[in-house]
Design the sequence.
């Protein structure tokens, strides 16, 4: 059989001391849910990460709002910066991980400063990408740096890598998906229990599956951001976010779902982008999905993305679209690509 | 939005004349169904391939049994070698694509000669990988060459890339899947029509979905080869192919399927590998799959692979597992990785 690793690499909890290359030094800005997940992966799976990366990946510096908060991971030996933008200029940081969120300061100046300095950036920040993607791409190109954003779409599912690399031989005709776990959880619960939207939303908020202000999710804006990123990759074009048709799930009633079910359908919030004669058509809205189609039974907080290529046909990827573990898994995958020098150009 | 390509790259049918890097020269051994598909992709999608690869990919030399056969693609300008092994020594060939099949000559000496010469190899040959993988890995390591085999498992679905790179931050607990399209087509048809195995097999043979000698597929050997490759990647260990438990679908009756259905199950031929206290357990056999589980409704010639990682959770990939287009899509994706210099080490 093919050996991926030449030796037996999985000595639990031990790091590869034999690896000759120096470690990749990471600076993390933002130590919330996802940041904590990244620290845990780099600690708990250090052996696997080092084997895949060809060298250890070490967090050397961090920045967050609260220095004293218990994150379940010790920050010993990591330089602390009160100002996250300082990570871009820290000579002990090879790559910046931006997990602050938001499309403006401090996330934007941090990412811009790092890229301009030729320092690779890994981010989960879809708002930043959606609002300032062209600016970021130019900064990355000019600085000769790479920008990884697998974690910005569909959590741990490698959809960005699949579109950029796995299906790179294909002319993509269509990309579509269930891109927002909050909406899918609400629609699934409404379907299963015959409940009304408002009741399920209130419950989801209690369980932490929906934000106190849920409009970004339930009005389809979050799904539209992700769709715009997927469409740009799938079709190799700039996507005008303002031209994306967006409709959320506020007006879906228990009766709609019951009628759809009687007709053999389920209601899902889909993002759909396709190549037409007139250009790229992108839209997010509730859809009637035939009960036996693959997307119909992607339930709860799961996400799924379907891509159709001219040679490969239909490929579907499914998995957890959010949460500390899946999102951090995507961030670390991007770091491994940086360590290997195989990160894709922006 | 983030731009993947800086300019508008999709001028249909035109190649990038502005690309400064010299093209990647490919030598293809074997011009059957998949080889013809590779030629068609590199012709029809030359613009997309060049944009993703950063430079054109050009077939400069070929070898096949029959020089005169009509493949729907002209071989003008490609050097012809009667002996495929000569491709390894052709100084006008940067990378060898091996699509001859079979675990011995001429596939094996060709791949070995190319790797020893430090020439990257892309192959769809799972029999070769299963029988001589350790030898190939050593040759690749010593020669400093890469060996791409995305096309060897699950056709166009990027499962190899997902395990090697997309989920590289995770300790994989389990990998499982529907890995043989012939078996899945037969089981799906038996289910849909209540037919017996022998009748559906005879029909599948007429339609070209099953070989004249179908034993390699229906006895589970093909699925076991693919499972062994997946397990080696997922768990980072050599997998002893002789230790894989293999049971095919010959003995599945219409009655079995009917009973399973009554109990809420479907019968699928699954390959399952998991990490246990005692080591890696790998097996291929017909399974009762709960009707509402994601694998249950992967029907017909579709393949699917499920991987479970400690941080990412469950990720499933689904698509066409065979055929000229999907398999050639995977071959060209590997060539693009070679052109970008981002092919993974063996």
Sequence:
């Amino acid at each position: 059989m093919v050996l991926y690793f030449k030796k037996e690499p999985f000595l639990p909890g031990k790091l590869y001391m034999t690896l000759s290359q120096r470690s990749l030094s990471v600076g993390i800005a933002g130590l919330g849910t996802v940041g904590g997940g990244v620290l845990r992966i780099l600690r708990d799976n250090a052996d696997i990460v080092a084997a895949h990366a060809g060298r250890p990946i070490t967090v050397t510096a961090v920045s967050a709002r609260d220095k004293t908060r218990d994150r379940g991971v010790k920050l010993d030996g990591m330089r602390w910066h009160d100002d996250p933008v300082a990570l871009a200029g820290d000579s002990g940081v090879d790559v910046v991980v931006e997990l602050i969120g938001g499309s403006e300061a401090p996330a934007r100046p941090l990412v811009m400063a790092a890229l301009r300095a030729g320092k690779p950036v890994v981010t989960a920040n879809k708002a930043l990408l959606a609002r300032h993607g062209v600016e970021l791409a130019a900064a990355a190109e000019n600085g000769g740096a790479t920008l990884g954003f697998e974690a910005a779409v569909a959590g741990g599912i490698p959809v960005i890598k699949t579109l950029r690399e796995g299906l790179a031989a294909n002319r993509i005709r269509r990309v579509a998906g269930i891109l927002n776990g909050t909406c899918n959880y609400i629609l699934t619960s409404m379907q299963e229990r015959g409940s009304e939207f408002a009741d399920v939303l209130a419950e989801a908020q209690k369980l932490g599956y929906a934000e106190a202000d849920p409009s970004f999710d339930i009005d389809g804006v979050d799904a539209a951001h992700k769709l715009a990123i997927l469409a740009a990759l799938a079709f190799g074009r700039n996507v005008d976010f303002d031209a994306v048709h967006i409709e959320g799930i506020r007006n879906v009633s228990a009766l709609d779902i019951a009628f759809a079910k009687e007709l053999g359908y389920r209601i899902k919030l889909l993002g759909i982008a396709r190549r037409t004669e007139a250009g790229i058509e992108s839209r997010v809205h509730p859809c009637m999905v035939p009960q036996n189609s693959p997307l119909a039974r992607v339930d709860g907080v799961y996400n799924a993305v379907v891509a159709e290529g001219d040679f490969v046909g239909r490929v579907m990827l499914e998995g957890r679209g959010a949460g500390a573990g899946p999102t951090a898994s995507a961030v670390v995958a991007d770091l491994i690509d940086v360590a290997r020098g195989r990160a894709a150009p922006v």
Residues 160-319 of chain A form a domain with the Dihydrodipicolinate Reductase; domain 2 fold (CATH 3.30.360.10). Confidence is low (pLDDT under 50) at residues 1-20 of chain A. Chain A touches chain B through 85 residues (CB under 8 Å).
